[in-house]
Amino acid sequence: MTLSPRHLAAALAGATALATAPAAMAAPTIPGYTHGQPGLARSPVSLQELDPLKRTLLLGDDDVRALRQSREILADQVEAILDVWYGFVGATPELLASFKHTGTGAPDAAYLGAVRKRFGQWILDTADARFDQAWLDYQHEIALRHAPAKKNQTDGVQSTPLVPMRYLSALTIPVTTTLKPFLAKKGASAADVEKMHAAWVKSVLLQTILWSQPYAREGQF
Ligand code: HEM
Known about the structure:
mainly alpha, disordered N terminus, binds protoporphyrin IX containing FE, Globin-like, globular
């Protein structure tokens, strides 16, 4: 099936029913979203290893407070944020390639739409992050879903075998740069917007570093 520009636009911008409940409660409503579920593999990165990584990123309690502050600001803007992020991916062929159906060579609208729902929940989860074992384990799951180990499996699609690792951390910049205007939309002070933005940069970078783990050679992460 060849995807017409209109269908692609609909998939990229498609409204999704987003759960705004905490991660554990939201689980049944988002296909493939398994945060906090028993049976999820344990992260090969330990909480003891996570701590110095957070310190290296200067990610501290102030940042966690700023992430929490961002939650209420972002909660009812999730779809608009996803429109911007999907717009960026859709306009960047090298990124859109990871959503291509291997049979048709065209972007897979159903795949884009399924991932979009979990991406929306991820916005809330990033603001809510407790950096505990459950959080770490879902980081590992997201890592595997970008890598050859598990890409395409969750949505049962035929697509490229992996998201190239080099783009993971690179996407931190468009994601967090375009988030800033949304952080500023609800009347927070300029100083608070800066703090929330900085906290988001650190958290997204931390996550993409964790997501690079499956790509690293044994013992070299
Ligand atoms: C800051 C960087 C990135 C963020 C925050 C991000 C976020 C996410 C999230 C939240 C999911 C869904 C996870 C879940 O299943 O619960 C996901 C899946 C996915 N992302 Fe990313 N991502 C990033 C980088 C990239 C890049 C650079 C690409 C493409 C070049 C990409 C392509 C994909 C694909 C294809 C999936 C679906 C994987 C599957 O088959 O399960 N991502 N991403």
